[in-house]
Amino acid sequence: MLTGERRREIDAVIDRLWANGLPDLKTVIDQICDLLFLRLHDAAAWGRMREMAPEVLFTEMRERVFPGLREGAAMLIGTPALLVQTMDAIDRLDLADRDLMGDVYEHLLSKLDASGRNGQFRTPRHIIRMMTALAAPRPGEHVCDPAMGTGGFLTAAAACASVRLTGLDIDPTMVRLAGMSLRLAGVTDADLRRCDALEADVSPACDLVLANPPFTGRRDSAAPGLAPASTKRTELLFLALILRMLREGGRCAVIVPDSLLFGTTRAHRLLRERLVTENTLRAVISMPGGVFRPYAGIATAVLLFTRGGTTDRVWSYEMHADGFSLDDRRVPVPEDDIPDILARFSHLEDETVRPRTAQSFFVPADEIAAAGYDLSYRRYARAEAVPQDVPPPAVILAEIRETERRIAEDLAKLEAMLDD
Hints:
Elements: H1 4-19, H2 25-41, H3 43-50, H4 54-69, H5 80-91, H6 98-115, H7 125-135, E1 142-145, H8 152-160, E2 164-169, H9 172-184, E3 191-194, E4 206-211, H10 234-245, E5 246-257, H11 266-277, E6 279-287, E7 300-307, E8 313-318, E9 322-324, E10 332-336, H12 338-345, E11 360-364, H13 365-370, H14 377-380, H15 393-419
Parallel strand pairs: 1-2, 1-4, 2-3, 4-5, 6-8
Antiparallel strand pairs: 5-7, 6-7, 8-11, 9-10
C-alpha cells in the first residue's frame, strides 16, 4: 500500500521537477516513469549509475541512457542535484512489492488525469473491474483494446486469465505508459502499437474487446466502409471498428455515451439496428453522469454483445450508484449497484420475471425494433404506481355535497347584502 508519507514524497518530487523548468505535468510524469522503467528494467545499470558523481551521472543520463530508452526520449531534468533527488526518491520505493509499485504508478497517472492537460482520462478502476468481470476473459483468448490509453483494461484482463493482449493508441506516451503498467503487472509479451485505430486495416481476429474509446469527438477521415452510414462521430466509428475487429462469436464490453443509445441520425439508428439484428446484444447498463467526474459529467452506458447471431432480448439495467459520490470529489459512499449488477448478470434466467418498474428487466428485440432501435433504459421503464389512501366513494360524495351546501349559503348571504 502507498503510505501517506510516500505519496507526499512523490508529490514533492513532482512539484520540484515542475517548478524547475519542465514545461507541463505530462512531461514531469514522463521523466519519472522513464526513471522507474530504467530501475525496473536494469537494476545492475541503475546501481552502477548511483555510484557516479552527480555531474558524471547527469551527463551519462542525458547523453547515453535516456536516448537509448526509446525513440525520441530525452532527459529534461535540469540539474545534477535535481536528478539525484529524484533518483533518491525512487530508491526509497520497494520495487519488489508489485502491489506497491502498481499503487505508485496509479498515483502518478491520477496526477496526470487531474491536470486535464493531455485530454486523456482513464476509466475508473472499479468500472474496469466490473466490465472485465462481466466479459469474463478465458485462458488463451486474444483480448484487444483499440484505444488502450494507459492499459487499464488489458492489465485487468491479464489479472483474470492467461490471455494474449493487443493494444492500440494514437498517442506514443499512452503506448509507453501502458507498457509500464503491464510490466508492473508481470506482463512482458503484450503487443502494444502506436497507430490510429480508425485508419488501421484490422482483421476479425479478437476473441474479446474491452474498451472505453474516445467519444463526443469528430473525425475527418476513417477506414473506408467502417461505419454503416456516413458519420464523423468517433463513438460510432469506434463501435463499428470493434465489430470489425471481433471474430465470429467474439465478445465485447465497451463504454459509449448515453446519446448513442437513442441518437436519431441515420448512422446512430443503423448501427444500433446492426447490433440487434446481426449480432447478439446481451446487455445495456446505463451509468449515471457522475461516474467520470471530475473530468466529464456526461452520462454513459456499457454495451455487452457477441458478434454474430441475432438478438432475442436485451437486459437493461439502470445504475444509480457506483460506490462513490457523483460530484467532483468522488469520495467513497455506501451506495453501490456494481455487486448487484454482477450478481444479476450471472443469473440472467432469474431476470425474466422482473417488471418494467424494476431497476433491471428484459426488453424483447421486436419491441426494440418497433421503437426505432432505441436502447435506453428510460424508453422501456415504467413508473411504479404509488398506493394512496383514498376514502370510499360515499365519503367523497358526502364531502362534495357539504362543500356545495356551504357555497350555496355563502351565495345567499352575498345576495342578501346586495338587496340591502
